[in-house]
């Protein structure tokens, strides 16, 4: 079973690239982030024509997450995270597909830091950890997939110096991510590529893609029951280089 995460950076603008990727790689589950569309304007018919059922948590113009399942409809479990009633951002969606609990996550960027946006990022990560603990307690195979906006280690960026003041690489961001791993979640890509140097994001600016000046911020965290079934974890890097592509590449895990 292949479960993928893909920050699409605008589902309507990237729809041809999304359909192309779905047809070429045929993931069983695709967790999308930054769909940047309202619930009413989500391209459900196009997704269905590609063979996927979908649920989504939209927001006009920015944010927004979705879960697609090949040949079936994901069974929604939760949308949004508890703990901050005034938070209206569409950043979390959770569903069951074929006995696997999957979550599509778009964690706040947090820039500029320090400041209110960074504080919000850290609060959001704490709320995610609380929800992850609830999922853990259910003892189900689970994959928490998405754009975490965290560079976990120095080996996960092309340049530590270039990113050292960015919210993605602050000690507090890394510590919050590390606490998730400490709770027993497995970073699938890191487990398959311990040497690092695997990127999932390349900025549109500064010739980043041709220079391969990227970093890893899209992660798939596995519960023990899912980690026991891990066969592979990779990045569909070539999709970043296609015409009018997202600035992220899809990442995925294969579970046996």
UniProtKB/TrEMBL annotation:
Keyword Membrane: no
Binding positions (Mg(2+)): 7, 34, 147, 149, 247-248
Cofactor note: Probably binds two magnesium or manganese ions per subunit.
Catalytic machinery residues: 106, 147 (proton donor/acceptor), 248 (proton acceptor)
E.C. numbers: 3.1.11.2
GO MF entry, a single one: metal ion binding
Region spans: Disordered: 232-256
Marked site (Interaction with DNA substrate) residue numbers: 248
Domain of life: Bacteria
Residues covered by the Endonuclease/exonuclease/phosphatase domain: 4-248
Keyword annotations of the record: Hydrolase, Magnesium, Manganese, Metal-binding
Biased composition (Basic and acidic residues): 232-247
UniProt site positions, description: Important for catalytic activity: 218
Tagged with keyword Chaperone: no
Cofactors (names): Mg(2+); Mn(2+)
EC class of the enzyme, as a word: hydrolase
Site positions (Transition state stabilizer): 149
GO BP, sorted A to Z: DNA repair
Family according to the record: Belongs to the DNA repair enzymes AP/ExoA family.
Protein name in the entry: Exodeoxyribonuclease III
Organism: Sphingobium algorifonticola
Source organism phylogeny: Bacteria, Pseudomonadati, Pseudomonadota, Alphaproteobacteria, Sphingomonadales
Gene giving rise to this polypeptide: xth
């Amino acid at each position: 079973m292949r479960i993928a995460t893909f920050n699409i950076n605008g589902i309507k603008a990237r729809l041809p690239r999304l359909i192309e990727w779905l047809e070429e790689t045929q993931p069983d589950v695709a967790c999308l982030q930054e769909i940047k569309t309202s619930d009413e304007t989500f391209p459900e018919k196009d997704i269905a024509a590609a063979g996927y059922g979908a649920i989504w948590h939209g927001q006009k113009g920015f944010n927004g997450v979705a879960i697609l399942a090949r040949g079936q409809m994901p069974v929604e479990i939760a949308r949004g995270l508890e703990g901050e009633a005034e938070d209206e951002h569409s950043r979390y969606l959770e569903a069951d597909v074929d006995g696997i609990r999957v979550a599509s996550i778009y964690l706040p960027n947090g820039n500029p830091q320090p400041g209110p946006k960074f504080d919000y990022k850290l609060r959001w990560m704490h709320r995610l950890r609380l929800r992850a603990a609830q999922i853990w307690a259910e003892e189900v195979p689970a994959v928490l997939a998405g754009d975490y906006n965290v560079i976990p280690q120095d080996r996960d960026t092309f340049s530590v110096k270039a990113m050292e003041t960015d919210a993605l690489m602050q000690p507090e961001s890394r510590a919050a991510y590390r606490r998730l791993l400490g709770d027993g979640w497995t970073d699938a890509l890191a487990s398959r590529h311990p040497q690092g140097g695997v990127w999932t994001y390349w900025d549109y600016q500064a010739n980043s893609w041709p220079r391969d000046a990227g970093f890893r911020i899209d992660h798939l965290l596995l519960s023990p029951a899912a980690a026991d079934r891990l066969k592979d974890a990779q990045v569909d890097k070539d999709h970043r280089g296609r015409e009018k592509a997202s600035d992220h590449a899809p990442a995925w895990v294969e579970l046996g």
